[in-house]
Structure formats: structure tokens, C-alpha cells
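re the bet — no i am not wrong, look at it urself. input seq straight from the record:
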Amino acid sequence: MKYSANSVWENKDEYDIAVIGAGHAGCEAALAAARMGFKTVVFTVSVESIAMMPCNPNIGGSSKGHLVKEVDALGGEMGKVIDKTFIQSKMLNQSKGPAVHSLRAQADKEQYSRTMRRVLENQENLDVRQTEVVNILTEEVCESGKKKVIGVQILSGGIYRVKAVVLCTGTYLRARCVYGEVSNATGPNGLQAANHLTECLKNLGINMYRFKTGFVVWNLQRHCHADRRCRLHHRCHPGFCGDRTEFFLRPVIVRIRRVQTVETGRQRDQILKNSLKIITGSQKAVIRSWVAAFLQLKTLAI
């Protein structure tokens, strides 16, 4: 569908807050606003992509584990949902001191997304809308040129009147997916990219930069050599939500799946090094450091 600024219709509902994007950050922002009593609307390009995990489907770990705990302490939902839907958990860095111990839970990615979607749909003061936001409407409030938000416009031309906007656009703004020598203008998992909002943000004086994220390698278990597998035994860790996890412990145990690590060899390392030869220009500069770090890994979880 081509965006047309001429086909304008106005939604009769007025909202206090609009959240653009329904990834991890967008879900928490929308729930926080709604639970504080603000009438909130959250926009997503697809309700099937709410809290989607297109990359490594886990919650926690050394870089994000403390953040999940902080979100939970503030009344967030991420820790509760992963405690309901994880298939394997592990306490990292146990060979070191307790200051660096970090819980990481591998999620059933589809069940995690469905569970978070139900939470959003059942939340009072919160509406979910499947559409792309293309414009943030503003008006000047004084002679100094300062502006305030008065609404957002969606792809069909419709207008939602709001008092504030929270941007949680993730990896969708003019997104590109690069694999090998191919570069496609698409969002994660083949979903549409948000191609219109970027120009609006630039016009509002917001500087835009392109960042890179990466998808991990997925292998069918039957394609891995059996003699290189090492089974990881699951342990019942306290979870991300403290005492509340006891409520979810029994149904979770039934869904625990066999998780193994696989040793990788020199052949994989050579494939990665050879792949750098076909990557040119700015892509090579971005990806070189990632490949160098990946070559340090000796195991993959399956």
C-alpha cells in the first residue's frame, strides 16, 4: 500500500500516550503507561511480531540479566512471561564469584510472543493497533519554535490524537536484511520495514544512525555429529521474578526440553573467514569485528 497524505480520517478516540513498536521495550512501555492510568495505544506492523525473538531467543544473560531484574522490580512483564515459557535455564559464570553470576533462560519463542500478546490485549487502558505509523503530528506552542505532540498519522492516512509518543521502533526503521551478497529492504523474519517514519523524525531534528544486529546460526539437531554433543542438564533456578516463580514452576517443568552443546571445528572457522572475501564496502567494516568475536566461540547450543 502506498502512503497518501490526502486520504485522511480521524480516529474518534483520544489517547494520552502512543507507543510505536511492540518489541520488548514497546510492550513494557505500553503496559507501564496503561497501568499508571493513562489511556494508551500501541502500534505494531504485525500482531504476530509482538515481543518476537528473531535472533537468539533468550532472556537474561551477562549483558541483560540485571536489566530484566530491574524491569521486574518496577512492575514489568518480561520476567513473568519468560518464567512461564522458558524451555531451559542456566546460571552463567558459576566458576567465578557470585558478583558475575547471571541467569539466562532459553525461551519457547512462539509461546513467549503469544503469552505477551495476551497480556497486552487483556490490559485495561491499552489498545493494540496493527498498522505502520508514518508521521508524528506536532504544533508550535510559543514563539520560540518549541513544538508539542498532538497526534500520529498511520499508513492509511488515519490520525490518532495523543498527548505523548514513545518510540520503540527497534530494528524496523528502513530496515535491511543482509546475507552473503544479498541485501533486501525488509524487517526481521520477512516482516515489512517501517520506511516512512524516518523522514518524519529527521524533519523533527532527530539524528538517525544505522546500527547492526545479527541472527545466530540455526542447525537441525540431526545434522550435528552425535559424538560432538554434550548434554546440558537442567537445574531449577529461582527464575527472574523471585518468589512469584513458585507459581509457575510446576507447569514449566513439563516443557523442559533436551538442550545440548556442540563443539565446532576448524572447518567452520575457515567458512567464516572465506565469507569476508565476498563482503564489500561498509558491510565489511561492520561485520569484520563480529566475525572476529564469533571465531572465539567453541560451542553452539542446540
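see?? The first helix runs from residue 24 to 35. told u. also The mean pLDDT is 78. so pay up
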